[in-house]
Amino acid sequence: MYVCNCNAIRERDAKSAILSGAITPKAVFDHCQTRAQCAKCVCDIRQMIAEQQSVMAIAAE
C-alpha cells in the first residue's frame, strides 16, 4: 500500500525509515530521498511514527 502517492513511498518504505530512526515526516522523506509534494500523506506518516514510538515505549517497560 502506498503512503505517499506523489513520491511512491510504500508503507514498508516508511516503516523502514521509522525503524532506522526517522521521527519526523521530513526524516522519512529524507530517508526515501524525496520531499513532500502535496503533503496529504504527512498525517499518515505522523501516525505511523506515533504508533512505532508507542510500541517502543511499551517494549522498554
List keywords for this structure.
mainly alpha; 61 residues
Protein model, in words:
The protein is mainly alpha-helical and 61 residues long. The protein has one domain: Arc Repressor Mutant, subunit A. It is 57% helix and 8% strand. Strands 1-2 form a two-stranded antiparallel sheet. A hairpin with a 4-residue loop joins strand 1 and strand 2 (9-10). The longest helix has 19 residues, at 42-60.
Short description:
Residues 2-51 form the BFD-like [2Fe-2S]-binding domain. This protein is mainly α and 61 residues long.
* Total discrete domains: 1
Largest beta-sheet characterization: 2 strands, antiparallel
Proportion of residues in β-strands: 5-15%
What is the subunit organization of this protein? Answer: single chain
Q: What is the terminal separation in angstroms?
A: 31 Å
Please write the string of helix (H) and strand (E) elements: EEHHH
Low-confidence stretches: none
Q: Architecture in CATH?
A: Orthogonal Bundle
Which range best describes the helical content: under 10%, 10-25%, 25-40%, 40-55%, 55-70% or over 70%? 55-70%
Number of helices: 3
Topology summary:
Blueprint: E1 2-4, E2 9-10, H1 11-19, H2 25-31, H3 42-60
Antiparallel strand pairs: 1-2
Helix pairs in contact: 1-3
